[in-house]
């Protein structure tokens, strides 16, 4: 039996049995096992338990760590591009749920040859005639049947029949879920939901916030939950629901209103993906300090392009700082109440659409913001592991347990007591493949 440390570990074949020793957090419990071990073989986790029970495997390589072994992280709300993909895995994010992309871009993401996360695509969102994406040029939006659906970031549906055809089209393209956006008419939204249910496609929805066009949306969170959405992104649609109930969402909502909205979410079996990192930079004229995030110092043309985009977004939203503060407050309050009720809160970043949300690294900032809002470190970690996997319908992800995919993240310290410990990454394993620092650095440079 050969024993290595993360610093001395050679490149290993995924078929090599490896015993990873150290503090083990399984993605579900409140606390880790202090002296645990994980056996991986053939891209799967074969066994988990006390180190003494797994250390005598003669055919295995042993890796002795001084940190915590936890599941690879899941970002539930991203807008990926092929060039961003290595950034995610370098930050320990091994799976992402894409929240809107043209089918052409989805093809490029799935065909990406280098290191990258597992991508679960939605394809283009469904939106109404007044789609915000029209601001991105005529090529960004198309209607089902116009022959250019694969290049569309948003498919415009005006009638229930169009919605049903659009859902069927996207299902045929192999998307794993749908995204419904803020300008859909109620009857069209309902038709899309019914079609998605027949095809067993879960639905994520963005109904608009105070900082966007939430008050102009036609469907609010209460209605979307009643129709069976799987997750509500950005805590969108809740401000509109409160306003329709006679309350001013720019002010602190009464406790009973917040409790009712949280209870509705839990009863519906839906998840809240609050994306606190979207609002936080917009609440102040000072950019957030992310200097210790994974890849915070990564330069190059891609980073320069993202920085230019973020600076424009941040400067352009200066007049709506107070609305961002209201959105941030509502999202945080709902997240805490839903978690307290035993409901599902998922971790998503909206990277890189949100200002200063690094691909990959931004998820670590989101975890800290969830804890600052009032979740425990374990609840925040579950939001990016087992809870996120449940939301994806993937019981084989987000957990360190026998039969699960061998996606592992090894970090210094114990993130169940200090959530910032996730930022000091020692090793990343995806599907049993060890992603060495050299491999990741080469992919980032390319």
TrEMBL record:
Gene3D superfamilies referenced in this protein's UniProt entry, alphabetically: Amidohydrolase (3.40.50.10910), Urease, subunit C, domain 1 (2.30.40.10)
SUPFAM superfamilies: Composite domain of metallo-dependent hydrolases, Metallo-dependent hydrolases
Database matches in InterPro entries: Amidohydro-rel (IPR006680), Metal-dep_hydrolase_composite (IPR011059), Metal_Hydrolase (IPR032466), Metallo-dep_Hydrolase (IPR051781)
Residues annotated as domain Amidohydrolase-related: 68-430
Protein name, per record: Amidohydrolase
Organism placement in taxonomy: Bacteria, Thermotogati, Deinococcota, Deinococci, Deinococcales
């Amino acid at each position: 039996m050969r024993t290595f440390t993360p610093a001395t570990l050679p490149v290993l074949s995924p078929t090599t049995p490896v015993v990873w020793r150290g503090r083990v957090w399984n993605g579900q419990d409140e606390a880790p096992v202090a002296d645990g071990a994980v056996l991986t073989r053939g891209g799967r986790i074969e066994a988990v338990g006390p180190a003494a029970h797994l250390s005598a495997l003669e055919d295995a390589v042993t890796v002795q760590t001084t940190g915590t072994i936890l599941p690879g992280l899941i970002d539930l709300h991203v807008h990926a591009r092929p060039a961003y993909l290595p950034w995610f895995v370098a930050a320990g994010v091994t799976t992402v749920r894409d929240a809107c992309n043209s089918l052409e871009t989805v093809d490029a993401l799935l065909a990406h040859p280098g290191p990258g996360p597992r991508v679960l695509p939605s394809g283009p969102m469904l939106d109404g005639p007044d789609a915000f994406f029209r601001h991105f040029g005529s090529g960004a939006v198309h209607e089902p049947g116009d022959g250019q659906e694969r290049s569309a970031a948003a498919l415009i549906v005006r009638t229930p029949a169009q919605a049903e055809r659009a859902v069927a089209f996207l299902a045929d393209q192999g998307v794993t879920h749908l995204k419904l956006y803020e300008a859909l008419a109620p009857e069209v939204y309902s038709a899309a939901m019914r079609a998605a249910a027949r095809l067993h496609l879960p639905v994520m929805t963005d109904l608009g916030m105070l900082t966007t066009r939430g008050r102009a949306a036609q469907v609010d969170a209460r209605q979307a939950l009643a129709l069976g959405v799987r997750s509500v992104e950005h805590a969108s649609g809740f401000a509109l629901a409160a306003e329709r109930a006679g309350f001013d969402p720019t002010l602190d909502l009464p406790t009973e209103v917040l409790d009712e909205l949280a209870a509705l979410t839990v009863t519906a079996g839906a998840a809240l993906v609050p994306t606190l990192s979207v609002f936080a930079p917009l609440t102040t004229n000072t950019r957030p300090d992310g200097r210790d995030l994974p890849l915070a110092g990564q330069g190059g043309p891609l980073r320069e392009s993202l920085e230019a985009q973020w600076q424009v977004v941040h400067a352009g939203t200066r007049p709506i700082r107070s609305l961002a503060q209201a959105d941030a407050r509502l999202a945080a309050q709902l997240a805490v109440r839903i978690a307290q009720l035993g409901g599902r809160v998922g971790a998503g970043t909206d990277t890189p659409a949100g200002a200063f949300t690094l691909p990959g690294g931004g998820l670590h900032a989101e975890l800290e913001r969830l804890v600052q809002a009032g979740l425990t470190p374990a609840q925040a970690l579950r939001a990016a592991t087992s809870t996120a996997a449940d939301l994806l319908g993937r019981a084989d992800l987000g957990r360190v347990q026998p039969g699960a995919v061998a996606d592992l993240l090894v970090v210094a310290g114990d993130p169940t007591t200090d959530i910032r410990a996730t930022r000091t990454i020692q090793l990343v394993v995806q599907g049993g493949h060890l992603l060495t620092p050299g491999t990741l650095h080469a992919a980032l440079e390319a």
